[in-house]
Amino acid sequence: MRPPRHGCGRQCGAALITALLLAALAAVMVSGMLWRQWGAIQREQAARQSQQARWLLRGAVDWARLILREAASNTQVVALDQPWAVPLAEANLDQFLAAGQQDSLGRVWLEGHIVDAQARFNLTDLATLGKPNPDAVQALQRLCGAVGANPALAQQFAQAIAAAQLPNAPVLPIRELQDLARASPAIASELPRLAPYVTVLPAATPVNANTAGAQVLAAVLGVDNAQAAQLLARRAQSHFDDLQSISRALGAGASLNVDPALVSVSSSYFEAVARVRIGNFEYAEQALIQRIGGLTQVLRMQRVAPWLASVQPARIS
Predict the structure, then answer these.
(1) What percent of the chain has pLDDT over 90?
(2) Contacts 24+ apart (CB under 8 A), 293-300
């Protein structure tokens, strides 16, 4: 019997290695195909959930507009003891969805709230037709001092607002608070500190004394912290019905000059924030709503971080 030739062993080994390489290549190709298919399925599912979430949020905004219209039919006064100020805690929508849709959507949750945009100082008040408003600038200076910001920046804010209001202005329009960050590095550095107390609305608006916090109320009224606390204590018992009731709340010995351009007891702008959760998918949007009489319109909607909707607004008492 002849011994095996070395050439056959080498050929068999090469064939085995080739077969293993082909098997490995086939496994990699199949894994890649499965990965791409899984990725396509995930993208399609995310797109479907995003579309469903947006439709649900449109319904939530319509609900907010309805609540605001109903409130306007009863009174023009806007206060925190009215139904619009009650937040919607996270609610399960499964029982409200049409039959046959629950399996495709999974567990659906909705939460949100409405806040009075005029509870904050409107930076648009700082200038009118391109000219700074001294009274509003002084109010912002007081507010900056109260919250630890640089009061000297109030004039820079006013100049930035005024420059954007000029016809054929060489600067971009200021529609949101973050737009002011491009005015100067000093303003950009102070915006995070001022953000809870200021806003930018499409038109000049007074601060609502029924919804504003102590710092904002003290700034626009020109009162000290003790008087602001006295006003909030009086408001907790019963909201202010008119500007005279604000003056009366400080007592007979107090002298208070309420500027109707800076202070009011009503509001025309509101922000509705809602979050939808479908399974592990979360989507939140914020809408700026303007109310004129019994009419409401959505001025803008933008996607926001979901946690903004989950944090319930503090009731300012």
Answers:
(1) 50
(2) 293/72, 294/69, 294/72, 294/73, 295/69, 296/65, 296/68, 296/69, 298/61, 298/65, 299/202, 300/175
